[in-house]
Amino acid sequence: MPVAGGSRFSVTFWGTRGSIACAGPHTVKYGGNTSCLEVLCGDERLIFDAGSGLPMLGRHVLANEGPVDTQVFLTHTHLDHIIGMPFFALFHIPGLTVPVYAGHLKPVGMSLHGVLSDMMRAPLFPVPPEIFGANVSFNDFEAGEVLHPLDGVSLRTAPLNHPNGACGYRIEYDGKAIAYITDTEHYPDRMDDRVLDLIQGAGIMIYDATYTDEEYEKFVGFGHSTWQEGIRLADAANVETLVIFHHDPSHTDDMMDEIAADVEKARPGTIVAREGMTLTL
């Protein structure tokens, strides 16, 4: 097992959008790629979600470090969270080892390899996963398990309230914690105890804030939440820094600026995720 050496504990956002990538002049500031996070635990890297931001991360790693082993953890397998996988450079380099994990499929008798094979097949895609040159393994666990991807790093997991299932993560390293909670829909009459447990006392909480409370009324059942609910959860769990994430593709930079101003008033220090942003604990 690789050892996470060094004190650095950071998260970089390579994709901040939900549902579908949105390129254009009105999404430059906050970014248009879908979910992809890079978490550095000392000298080791963990990747969370494989949306359209993943290929950029792969090119960055190759340009700055060369071919290196890494690990990928998925919240779920809706297209916006896996669409970058066929284009991830590290998957195509012989000799590398790149395990991929998902925690929402095993309980329903499905497999990650099966889902990706269904995506990478005719008539949807020209080549199958077998074209990957690296040793890419597909590993299913059950959300709720505790994983140990690196010596000195623990991943606590829990199921999230999302159509077809999803898995939340709490990354613990060097006495600190980053919680990654997307895609999830809050309950109308109570807070989600599983989410509260994952985020309790976290230094950083990255939360699915696709909608505002006003917008949410039109999207009940879509499996997403609001920045207002994120603040309620963060306050209840004594989270240090809340990060608004999984931006709706219809939200322009101007709209996101308005949301950023609103969240700063409601909970000073709250951050709206931007593509390329790095936060360090």
Strand-and-helix sequence, N→C? EEEHEEHEEEEEHEHHEHEE
Structural class: alpha/beta
Strand order of the main beta sheet, please?
6-5-4-3-2-1-14
Range of strand content: 25-35%
- Report the sheet with the most strands, covering strand number, pairing sense and barrel closure: 7 strands, mixed
- N- and C-termini, Cα separation: 24 Å
Radius of gyration: 18 Å
Report on the structure:
With 281 residues, the protein is α/β, with parallel strands linked by helices. It is built from 6 helices and 14 strands. Strand 9 and strand 10 form a beta hairpin. It starts with 8 loop residues before the first strand and ends with a strand. The relative contact order is 0.16.
List the helices and strands and how they pair.
Layout: E1 9-15, E2 36-41, E3 44-48, H1 54-64, E4 71-74, E5 97-102, H2 112-119, E6 135-140, E7 146-150, E8 153-160, E9 166-173, E10 176-181, H3 193-199, E11 204-208, H4 213-216, H5 227-236, E12 241-245, H6 253-266, E13 271-272, E14 278-280
Parallel strand pairs: 3-4, 4-5, 5-6, 10-11, 11-12, 12-13
Antiparallel strand pairs: 1-2, 1-14, 2-3, 7-8, 8-9, 9-10
Pfam families: Lactamase_B_2
Keywords: Hydrolase
Domain Metallo-beta-lactamase: 33-224
